[in-house]
Amino acid sequence: MTDGIVLRRAVAADARAVADVWLRSYTAALPTVVRAHSDDEVRDYFRDVVVPLRETWVAQADDGGIVGMMVLAGDELSQLYLDPGRRGQGIGDRFVALAKERSPGGLTLWTFQVNAPAHRFYERHGFVAAERTDGSGNEEREPDVRYVWHP
Predict the structure, then answer these.
(1) Among 12, 78, 129, 145, which lies 20 to 30 A Cα-Cα from 108?
(2) pLDDT tens-place string over residues 80-97
């Protein structure tokens, strides 16, 4: 179902589209989680920090549109967000396969406890919940869970 989708490293010109995918996905997947930053702050962060300084990947559709994004930080899968209309099409599966290829020794990630679909998705890919917190360590102050994957 991912016909025509190309995974590639993000470039500076992608920053706005990457931030917009993040914003749409976050809003759709986490309606009860209060964001710590405004839309403009998120866009600035992606433009100034994430795309130029992090290992940022995008899923690009045939029409050139960015429909997904993933950020890796060493052995941490720090972000994986899909355009809400593109969920369930195998793009996330491809991103996780790429993350495992890039970090063959194992991966860790955090997701909010309220995000049950993400829990199912990562568990389906072999991740195991390793730690739960009260949220005091994240900007949103939202309880979260750390997942780990070992090959």
Answers:
(1) 12
(2) 999 998 988 899 999 999
